[in-house]
Amino acid sequence: MSGQGAQDADEHRDWWAQLYDPHAADTGRARARDTLDERYRSVSRTLTGPPATAPGPGPTAAGAPPGPEAATAPVPALPPGVLPPAAPDAPGEWVPDTVVESARFGSGVLHAVSVRGAAGRQAGRPRTDALLAARFGAEEDGLLLVAVAAGGRSGPDGHRAARAACHAVGEAVGRSSARLARDLREDRTSALQPGLHRLTDRAFGRLRAQAAALGLEPERHTVDLRCLLLPADPHCRTRVFFGAGAGGAFRRSGDGWQDIEPVSTPVSPLPDGPAGRDPAAGAAAARDGFAPAEPTAEAAAAPFHFRSRAAEPGGVLLLCGPGVAEPLRAEPAFAERLAARWTGADGGPPGPAAYLDGLLCAVEGHSGDRTAVTVWES
Length: 378
Description:
Layout lengths: L2 H18 L15 H13 L49 E8 L2 E8 L2 H6 L5 E8 L6 E8 L7 H18 L1 H9 L3 H25 L10 E8 L6 E7 L3 E6 L2 E4 L3 E4 L12 H9 L9 H5 L1 E8 L5 E5 L1 H9 L1 H10 L10 H7 L11 E8 L1
Antiparallel strand pairs: 1-2, 2-12, 3-4, 4-5, 5-6, 6-10, 7-8, 7-11, 9-10, 11-12
Helix pairs in contact: 4-6, 6-7, 10-11
């Protein structure tokens, strides 16, 4: 190995060690110049993302597409709704009504859908759920991240917070995907849990900093976040759920669903020190040009969820936002419909259209956005 390569490897190991160390300071680019123009540009980049592009072909069997949201798939079963108003100078904020993802990974098949709820469709509000499916690395170091962020608690503009949360988690996981894939292969949950907890803290720290820059209360710019890590290595059977806030994780059990909600611990803890500020989240916010924001008591009490689970041959796992988890727990008819619609003719996964159709049935009292990710093991 060249001297430069050895130095790069050492720096990568140092960075990852700092990520797993709850007392370590954050790393990253130098802070932007502290001018009004720089702050405006930083907020705009974070909240609008890259310019919108024309829809391209859907994901292939090799994995998920690189973008945070797939092309919209037109499905006749969707009822017509009122389109939300679009700002012509902010194409990055245009949100499609429905997003459908399908991909193969390692030893399984994945379908994911995010659909605007009946309430948003009638009122002409954008979908406030965000869905990210991204594949990092290759061969045995390949890793698939699926993230579901629900911004409904932030009101009609929650789509901004949801997209920002998915981007923050995707960026952090992508930078460290090779190490995460190795930890999955070795089933090193003792290392994965604190590392992913720290990544989640950092994502919520950025949301708090963005809220402060925009003059919003933290609870008006926050999300419920759920993520799933899947290895591309077909011999690795470890699957990891993590996130914070409301949502759910389930496994198919007979004709119904077993709740396997991950174990929770406090997220965004107040560290020792006079400021009571998370140093990692504060440094990440500073890197983006924001002033670090103090976590509120509500943010400090939000639960961090983590669970590592071994895949079972023929098993079915479901990760979802609160718009699916709540009726799934409360309404047996809805749970039975999902179980029936999400079984193909050969007992395996259905087609993407049938998968979407399972989420479209009306459930009284549950009219919010619905986002779900389901994995069928071979």
